Amino acid sequence: MRYVLMLTLSLFVIAPAAHAGELMVVKQSPYTVAKTLDRLTAVMQKKGITIFARVNHTAGAQNVGLQLKPTELLIFGNPKLGTPLMQAKREIGVDLPLKALAWQGDAGKVWLGYTAPDALKARHGVDGRDGVFKKMTGALDKLTSAAVKAE
């Protein structure tokens, strides 16, 4: 089942994806945080998507003597989709390349989330690129669904 993370009164709430005001699409993964991002990386590389970086937030916390449940970020992109968006509204570049976050929640479940493309469109007021956002939405859904699909 697909979920979204919605910001309500400064609290994050997991809600069914059909709700309006989606900020973040969130899917449950049956794998560890590391394996979830390994799987997402493999799927993206097969599709020719560039992986720019992988950030291990847990290791960063440990480096300064703090604790954080497993949390990792993947930074990736496709200039064929991102460039037309920046041509329309250069400021969207602050949110590009795209990112996917995998984290272990307090109950031990692992989640994979990313900013909904429509949220990026609304945040930056990008007009005239609906086809790009539609393609981005479909691609992100397929890629992340493949990464969290149980085998």
Task: Give a verbal description of the structure.
The chain has 151 residues and is an alpha+beta fold. The protein has one domain: TT1751-like domain (TATA-Binding Protein). The chain is 38% helix and 30% strand. The protein contains 5 helices and 7 strands; from the N terminus they run E-E-E-H-E-H-E-H-E-E-H-H. The protein has a 7-stranded antiparallel beta sheet with strand order 2-1-3-7-6-5-4. Helix 3 packs antiparallel against helix 5. The longest helix has 19 residues. The protein is globular, with a radius of gyration of 15 Å.
Please describe the topology of this protein.
Layout: E1 2-8, E2 11-16, E3 24-29, H1 33-46, E4 50-56, H2 57-63, E5 71-77, H3 79-88, E6 98-104, E7 110-115, H4 117-124, H5 130-148
Antiparallel strand pairs: 1-2, 1-3, 3-7, 4-5, 5-6, 6-7
Helix pairs in contact: 1-5, 3-5
Order of helices and strands: EEEHEHEHEEHH
Q: Which CATH class?
A: Alpha Beta
Strands side by side in the biggest sheet: 2-1-3-7-6-5-4
Q: Helical element count?
A: 5
* Quaternary organization: single chain
Average pLDDT taken over every residue? 89
* Tally of separate domains: 1
Give a quick summary of the entry.
By secondary structure, the protein is α+β, with helices and mostly antiparallel strands.
What structural keywords apply?
151 residues, TATA-Binding Protein, alpha+beta
